[in-house]
């Protein structure tokens, strides 16, 4: 091997963890392997572990996989993460390991899941949804019980086109709406269509959902990170990268930093797409929930031929419904529907027809208004409580959505995760969402404030404050 080739090899850890082969689900295998190494004494209390970047290079896995494993093990108490000292095996596992040499994991899981993207399921409008299901099933034509059209039920596509035009400012009609089973399937369909069209590189925000980046990579697309500041993604780098054929954004409420894309930048990105013949993929992540003003209109309203819109009922209603939708430019609709027809994954016809009735009856609008008011109160309560009891904690982002980013000077995201986990709360560090090529060194913890029931919120907030003091 040449010296230059050797220089290009990833830097390794210098510490052999003897983790063995990682089969099947790599994240689960790695988590189990680290636990087993601690139980067996190969990793003694206080042992400093490799950085997430170094261990990922050693194991040839994605860095975010290692970040997620470290975060989970910190939550469970096996590891600690402290600023300046890295990730270590917890000193507190010594007695646990000595008493039970190789037990199954018996530590209780945290009592409240505050990971981002979880709505308050206790507020799901069960009665109105049941009425919609009963009405649609009792009146549905017999053909509705057959195989589902990959395009989606025509009734729902027509209803969604009108609703999105009215509520989100889209330029939509039923022929361009494709019903899918959620955001994950939507991104997969778009990625496959882009790859089939010859696109090789997609720009993404430097912080975002790792699962979406993996979906793009699985389709053979390289992702290029774009910097995000207080005004949203910086589009200036797009013109300097001629090979970029698409950009994936969360413009209404950037996930997870929580900022909104400034209007002049919105216009600049659309103009770039027009000049290049490129595609803007707009993930309208929790775009219905803005608390200080009316929700920002969708980017797709500026250009229906260069912006593809992705929406879902997962945040507004419940992820278990498996309902999402794409509003697709004319030149991609045939490819998207063809890609969808090659799989059996689809939203069931009952939920499609029930959603149609739910929107047409006005129940969806009523539910959105009620949840917007509830989440507004909850976010304000969180901000006021932190200002009073943990004034050194900065709550970043606009007054919108179902999550916030918390930053605290002197504490890393992993240390915050550990402290919060000690209060029986599950959260994720900002690092988990960072693109491997991102230049930003921002750190913190992402808190989803929507999931706890109204009756449980006060206790959750008290526990969070204790962790942050």
From TrEMBL:
<dbReference type="InterPro" id="IPR036390">
    <property type="entry name" value="WH_DNA-bd_sf"/>
</dbReference>
<dbReference type="InterPro" id="IPR051446">
    <property type="entry name" value="HTH_trans_reg/aminotransferase"/>
</dbReference>
<keyword id="KW-0032">Aminotransferase</keyword>
<dbReference type="Pfam" id="PF00155">
    <property type="entry name" value="Aminotran_1_2"/>
</dbReference>
<dbReference type="GO" id="GO:0008483">
    <property type="term" value="F:transaminase activity"/>
</dbReference>
<dbReference type="InterPro" id="IPR004839">
    <property type="entry name" value="Aminotransferase_I/II_large"/>
</dbReference>
<dbReference type="GO" id="GO:0003700">
    <property type="term" value="F:DNA-binding transcription factor activity"/>
</dbReference>
<dbReference type="InterPro" id="IPR000524">
    <property type="entry name" value="Tscrpt_reg_HTH_GntR"/>
</dbReference>
<dbReference type="InterPro" id="IPR036388">
    <property type="entry name" value="WH-like_DNA-bd_sf"/>
</dbReference>
<dbReference type="Pfam" id="PF00392">
    <property type="entry name" value="GntR"/>
</dbReference>
<dbReference type="GO" id="GO:0003677">
    <property type="term" value="F:DNA binding"/>
</dbReference>
<keyword id="KW-0808">Transferase</keyword>
<keyword id="KW-0663">Pyridoxal phosphate</keyword>
<dbReference type="GO" id="GO:0030170">
    <property type="term" value="F:pyridoxal phosphate binding"/>
</dbReference>
<comment type="similarity">
    <text>In the C-terminal section; belongs to the class-I pyridoxal-phosphate-dependent aminotransferase family.</text>
</comment>
<dbReference type="InterPro" id="IPR015421">
    <property type="entry name" value="PyrdxlP-dep_Trfase_major"/>
</dbReference>
<keyword id="KW-0805">Transcription regulation</keyword>
<feature type="domain" description="HTH gntR-type">
    <location>
        <begin position="24"/>
        <end position="92"/>
    </location>
</feature>
<keyword id="KW-0238">DNA-binding</keyword>
<keyword id="KW-0804">Transcription</keyword>
<protein>
    <submittedName>
        <fullName>GntR family transcriptional regulator / MocR family aminotransferase</fullName>
    </submittedName>
</protein>
<dbReference type="InterPro" id="IPR015424">
    <property type="entry name" value="PyrdxlP-dep_Trfase"/>
</dbReference>
